[in-house]
Amino acid sequence: LLVASCSDGIVGCCTLSAEDPEFWPDALKGEAAYLHKLAVRRTHAGRGVSSALIEACRHAARTQGCAKLRLDCHPNLRGLYERLGFTHVDTFNPGWDPTFIAERLELEI
Question: Domains in the chain, start-ordered, CATH in brackets?
C-alpha cells in the first residue's frame, strides 16, 4: 500500500503487487509490478497526486528489479494513464463476464 498525504491528511493511495494472474495471466514472473486501486480524493484531483503515486510505484518496481509497471483499468480511464506515460497493450476480457472489458497498459521503467 502506498499513501500520499499532505497537511489535509491522506489524499491518495494505491497498491502494488508482484503479479496479477487475473488480468495478466501470461506474464512472466518478475518482469513487472502491477498497480491497483489508484484513488485520489476529489478535493485533490489535478494536483499531481496520481503522478506522485505512479512515480513511487515506478521506483518500488525498479528497486524490485522489474522492467515494467502494469495496470488494468476501465476504458474511460485509458486517456489518463496514457497522459501519465503508459502505453496501451490491449483490450482484455478476463472471462468471468462476457460484457466486461478492461484496458491493459504498461510503463517502461
Answer: 2-108 (3.40.630.30)
